[in-house]
Design a protein that fits this description.
This protein has one helix and seven strands, in the order E-E-E-E-E-E-E-H. The protein is mainly beta. Strands 1, 2, 3, 4, 5, 6 and 7 form a seven-stranded antiparallel sheet that branches. It is globular and about 30 Å long. The protein starts with a strand and ends in an 11-residue tail after the last helix.
């Protein structure tokens, strides 16, 4: 991970659960995946960039992302987020998540 984003992950047989710590100003570039995703913001504020516009998600709010939906994230405030994915993120298991790595 890069200095503005840290991640703790557990992969089960059918899902991936990730706790993300994101610093204000960090960006997750627009990407898509075949996994359904549920993002639960515990603290902070995220701006999700979606094909239909931007959505702000704050503490206690949840956002569902359908499979194959292009999305990116701008971190407005330091944030703690739980992301749930089904099926599990095989790309993360194999280390094919360069869009989250090697950022400054």
């Amino acid at each position: 991970m890069h200095s503005l984003l840290t991640r703790q992950v557990i992969h089960t047989a059918s899902m991936t659960i990730a706790r993300l710590s994101l610093k204000a100003g960090s960006v997750v570039p627009v990407h898509s995946h075949h996994n359904e995703q549920v993002s639960m913001v515990e603290s902070g504020l995220l701006k999700f960039l979606l094909p239909d516009g931007e959505v702000l998600v704050g503490p206690g709010q949840v956002l569902e992302l359908k499979p194959h939906l292009p999305h990116g994230v701008e971190v407005v405030e330091d944030s703690e987020v739980m992301d749930l994915f089904t099926p599990r993120r095989e790309d993360w298991i194999q280390g094919d998540d360069a869009y989250l790595r090697n950022k400054k």
